[in-house]
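Entry 14. Structure prediction run on the chain below.
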Amino acid sequence: MTTQIRHVSTATPGVVAGLGAQLVLLTLLWAALRIGPSALAAGTTCAVVTCATLGYALHRSRARTFGQANWVTLFRATLVGGVTALVADGLMHGPATAAIVALSVVALILDGVDGHVARRTGTATAVGARFDMEVDAFLILVLSVFVAALLGPWVLIIGGMRYAFVAASWVAPWLKGALPPSFARKTVAAAQGVLLVVAASGLLPAAASVAAVGIALASLVWSFGRDVIWLWRNR
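Output returned:
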């Protein structure tokens, strides 16, 4: 009983702090950009779901501390919540492109920092790695929604592919197998966010943006296809 109480008291504050940070960021966005109720609802929902899921995962893993790397990932998740709010607001009232790009760029720059911190401090965990991956996947999904409004609904395939893969694994459990480390997979995953942000920025001509996002989609299809084939052969 004593161990369980200590577990809750050390891991929970991080989750609560994440929810508080998200509310602070949403308040700042409202003050600066006057985002509407739909944006506030989207950002708040994102924060609640993230913190509830993370809290449950930490509880199940009996994490004794929140971990320095998880703080970095939680900060990134807060930025992604802000991007979610801005994209939701943009669909209703016109996009705040500069703010969306700025928050996304910071979140992308920090991608990998949490992993480096975890390795350097010897605090790498399965929960932390999964948290990092899900934050990345959700940022790509949100950015694909924003870019789809500019280039067409086909862009949504990029954001939805990870979730389609997870859904397929419920039907085909062999898709849940562990994949070997791959630098190519990491490179393709990182490229998705970068190319989507470039397209979202509006700095490129429309044709160039379509080409950039098309390259992102083609590389993602190749990466997922290669992994599916490997999992099938090693099922």
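The radius of gyration is 18 Å.
Filed with the rest of this week's runs.
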